[in-house]
Amino acid sequence: MNTDITALEKPQYPVVDRNPPFTKVVGNFSVLDYLRSPPSPAFPSPSAIYQPGIKGPSMVTGGLIGLMGGFMYAYQNSAGRLMGFFPNEGEVASYQKRGGFSK
C-alpha cells in the first residue's frame, strides 16, 4: 500500500519541507490557524437535558472533541503549507532568510 501523499497529487506551491516532523508543523501554526480553529461550543446532548447527572460530562466531552478537531484543522493547514499544498508565501520567505529549504 502506497501511503505517500505526493503520489496522488503534486504540490502547487514551493515545498519548504516534504515530510515535516510534528514539532515543525506545530511551530509553524499561524495566528489565522488559531483563529480559524476555535473549539466548538460544548452543548449538552439531548439525553443530558433529561438526565441532569450527565450534563457536565457531556459538556466536557463535547469540549474535548472540539479542541481535538480544532487542533487537527490547524495541523492540517500548517503541514499543507510546509509541504506546498496550500499557499505559503510567508513560510517560503522566512525559510529563505534562515538559509534555504530542508530536503
TrEMBL record:
Entry-linked InterPro entries: NADH-Q_oxidrdct_subunit (IPR053229), NADH-UbQ_OxRdtase_su21_N (IPR019721)
Pfam families: NADH-u_ox-rdase (PF10785)
Domain NADH-ubiquinone oxidoreductase 21kDa subunit N-terminal: from-to ranges: 11-86
Superkingdom of the organism of origin: Eukaryota
Protein's name according to its UniProt entry: NADH-ubiquinone oxidoreductase 21kDa subunit N-terminal domain-containing protein
Lineage of source species: Eukaryota, Viridiplantae, Streptophyta, Embryophyta, Tracheophyta
